[in-house]
Each structure stands twice: as structure tokens, then as C-alpha cells.
Amino acid sequence: MTEKEYRSAIEAILFSAGDPVEIKRLAETFELPESAVQTQMDILTDEYAELDRGITIIRLNDSYQMVSVKEYARWVRKAMDLRRNIPLSQAAMEVLAVIAYNQPVTKSFVEQVRGVDCSGVIGSLTTKGLIEEKGRLELPGRPLLYGTTDHFLRCFSISSLDELPPIPKDEDRGDRGRQLSIFESEEDKEASDAPQDDKVTGTVEEIVSEAVEGK
Fold this sequence. Notes:
Blueprint: H1 3-17, E1 21-22, H2 23-30, H3 34-51, E2 55-60, E3 63-68, H4 73-79, H5 90-102, E4 105-106, H6 107-114, H7 119-127, E5 131-136, E6 144-148, H8 150-155, H9 174-179, H10 186-191, H11 204-212
Antiparallel strand pairs: 1-3, 2-3, 4-6, 5-6
């Protein structure tokens, strides 16, 4: 096969899979080194980015997925009669922030940070696919550990947790305030003269809502 044929085959696999496909799985399929598949994947991703079409390819950790471009989400929603999900509550946003910046963490850790019971919120975030179980802590009772999912990455249009904005050094807000700073609205950021991130627009409630709807 030529390199172009490999890229076409990868394109067919991503389209058919629907869900994220790991580089390791593609390498096993083509019996090629992961580095060689990664090179073709990078080329294919760049090609889609240059096409300015309604479909693109995104990276989620070590996986890739073919998705619709977010700018056309409202048309996809209208054509498929998809309902907009109810935005997450402030409590859910706070729990999500604590988990995102400290994962993997137990429910008890989250509750210590917030000072209230978080069982219902964690259950809701798990149902929405934004967090998932990441094993158990090797302590008496072996409590569950939680972390974010690929769905969470799509929520913020990032490829990995390494791309999360750094926690601002604001001594006046205390540790808890710094952990939750990423979940401020754009209006809050502008008011504090913080740098704006072109990737993340609108409130976090809107961003999470788009991701939950399965773009």
C-alpha cells in the first residue's frame, strides 16, 4: 500500500468506528510501528484541517476520532432533532474542576475540598460520561478513584490533560478558588484582565452542554 492508501484506510476506520480509535489499534491493524502510523495520522489530521469542511479529526490522548465541526453543531442538532442538554449546575462544575486538576481522586477527597456530600453530583457526572472510575485506592475499604474521560477533553476542545490552563497564582482566592478558576465565565476572566483562550469561548456550562450532546 502507498502512504495515501494507508491514510484512506485510516479514514475509513475512523468513520466506521464512530468512537475514538487508539494508535496502538491502528498499528496492530496495519502491522506497522506506532510511529509510522502516527506520522500518517498527523498528515491526515492536517489535511482535514486545511479542507475547511464540516468534518474534522481530533486527538484524544492516544486516540483519534472523526467528528463534526463544532461551528455546525446547531444544524446537526436541528437535522437530527437533538435536544440541548440541561447545563451543569455550579456544584457539578466545581466537582468537575476538583477532579480534573487532582485526578485520580476519591469521593471523600472531593467532599473534603467542597465541604458537602457529592454522591449525587459524582453520579450525574458519571452518567453524562464526563468522569469515570479509575480503579480503587489501596486503603481500607478500597474507595473508588475518579478521573475525567475523553468526553471531558472534547468538552474543552483539548487533546490531553496537559493542555488544561494553568491554575492562576492568586493568593487572595485560596487553594479552592485557584482549583476552580478554569470554570469562570468569559465575563469573569475579562473583569480580572486575564488572558483569553481562543479555544474556550462562552461559559463552561455552554461548552459542557455541547460536549454532552455528542458532537
